[in-house]
């Protein structure tokens, strides 16, 4: 029955320590929420087979926006970038999977939408660099920092019943 299947999955999950390789923090920027693209963006990562470890809709306070984009402080677009990220709710998500940082960056597409390939999120849905829909960590190390910043409450560990059909 469905309940038995769930119990098997959960007990397997308890036996599992580190399932996968990389972690990525990705989040919809406010335009993804405003434009009704939340489900579309989540769906791409979900269908690929990555694990959703954390997700929440949140209003971003200025201090968090500045911390998140600290590496860009001093650049001419920094004030506008912080204003943009704080301009409405974002959906913050953590995805886990083999090489998810590199794969996720490919799925998101190049920073400037006119350079991002068709088939990527930015290539399909964005037109300008200042409204490019989604952020994805650029390295495993930055993902770790961003997870600590956005998800201090911790992440959810679970195992999908599809696991053996996706992961060899
Ligand atoms: P990415 O988001 O692809 O990792 P960067 O880390 O270089 O790109 O930049 C962070 C964000 O800052 C970009 O996604 C974009 O929203 C904004 N940004 C970058 N360069 C510019 C620019 N020249 N003008 C306006 N906004 C920019």
UniProtKB/TrEMBL annotation:
The active site is at residue 135. Residues 29-157 form the Nucleoside diphosphate kinase-like domain. It comes from the Eukaryota. ATP binds at residues 29, 77, 105, 111, 122, 132. Belongs to the NDK family. This is nucleoside-diphosphate kinase. The chain holds residues 469 to 636 of 636 of the full protein.
